[in-house]
Design brief:
alpha/beta, Rossmann fold, binds iron/sulfur cluster
Length: 321
């Protein structure tokens, strides 16, 4: 690579946590800034989209793109950065698998606008207005990007070279990815980077013994034993269905893994794997008893597909024709 690598960071449909995650490498951000030229990072520096449009295709060495594709603006930027970047990285769970924004695939644009703009008790909107894509003001016409019915991952929109999982990626993993990039030590294109090759259970120190759950609990309903596997105590933990790499951060704090590092290697649909793991601990003698036990699981789709609905085999609730 001649000269310093040219690096871009971009934020599409997401909460912004991945931007904070970049800064969580703390003072090493100065080392990164020494090693690369940051040529686009709107959350931290004043750049405009026109700056990117004016760049030659392939002139950005790597773009770390976080956020899902929720709107026409997100898609435009995804296509723009794909064209301008030699390497495009889906950075964080939203770009990688849709994450929390992907749960909106249980509804559609109309359903979301209804709840957010018309029914929302904290919004004063007597005329029941919802956003439109074009509007004439005395100063001229203004344009808003189209809000899509369906949230897509970055990889469902444009070809992606690498994915970094996590909501957000952990600082030590982000740093490892930045270092690997600067040193030119990246694995084959298509790899998941900044994560492990096993499951969170493999990194977790809670002891697995007996798989006999008669009752499921939400985390605030019991005080779990700090040594025993949380799932075996009836607390829904996504560890068996989640890629390692975070250091089992949540179970170490006696909280269940929620699954933010996405599916482990070889698993296509994290929610299906998670369901299978939970089914394997249920101790029921009859179908009725099994139904009673699993009915205690609150918000099944939000639990099993919290991070991966958009990337799953389901992708979304069927749209009405
Ligand atoms: S299910 Fe959760 S608590 Fe149990 S071993 Fe796996 S990560 Fe640890
Ligand atoms: S334990 Fe699970 S939810 Fe917590 S940071 Fe790790 S992968 Fe994410």
């Amino acid at each position: 690579m001649a000269g310093k690598p040219r690096v871009a960071f971009y934020w599409a449909g997401s909460c912004g946590g991945c931007e904070i995650a970049v800064l969580e490498i703390r003072e090493r951000i100065l080392d990164l800034a020494q090693a690369v030229d940051i040529i686009f990072w709107p959350v931290a520096m004043d750049f405009k989209y026109q700056d990117v449009e004016a760049m030659e295709d392939g002139s950005i060495d790597v773009c770390f793109f976080n956020g899902a594709i929720r709107s026409a603006e997100n898609e435009h930027l995804a296509r723009l950065f794909r064209a301008k970047s030699k390497t495009l990285v889906a950075y964080g769970s939203c770009a990688h698998e849709g994450c929390i924004p992907g749960l909106a695939n249980l509804s559609d644009r109309e359903g979301i606008f209804e709840v957010v703009y018309r029914e929302n008790p904290s919004v004063e909107n007597p005329e029941k207005l919802v956003p439109v894509t074009r509007y004439d003001l005395p100063e001229g016409e203004v344009e808003l990007p189209t809000f899509y019915d369906t949230v897509r991952t970055l990889g469902q929109t444009v070809p992606v070279d690498y994915s970094v999982p996590g909501c957000p990626p952990q600082a030590h993993q982000s740093w490892a990815v930045f270092e690997a990039f600067v040193k030119g030590e990246l694995p084959p294109v298509g790899s998941v980077i900044g994560a492990g090759e096993k499951t969170v259970c493999d990194e977790c120190e809670h002891v697995k013994e007996e798989k006999k759950v008669k009752q499921f609990f939400r985390i605030h309903e019991i005080v779990p034993d700090e040594k025993k596997c949380l799932l075996e105590q009836g607390i829904i933990c996504a560890g068996p269905a989640t890629r390692s790499g975070c250091g089992a951060l949540c179970p170490t704090a006696n909280l269940p893994c929620r699954g933010c590092y996405g599916p482990p290697p070889g698993v296509v649909d994290q929610g299906a794997k998670f369901l299978s793991a939970v089914a394997s601990v249920v101790d029921a003698n009859t179908e009725e008893e099994a139904a009673r036990i699993v009915s205690q699981i609150a918000d099944p789709i939000g639990t099993f597909y919290r991070f991966g609905l958009a990337a799953s085999l389901l992708r979304r609730r069927k749209l009405d024709q």
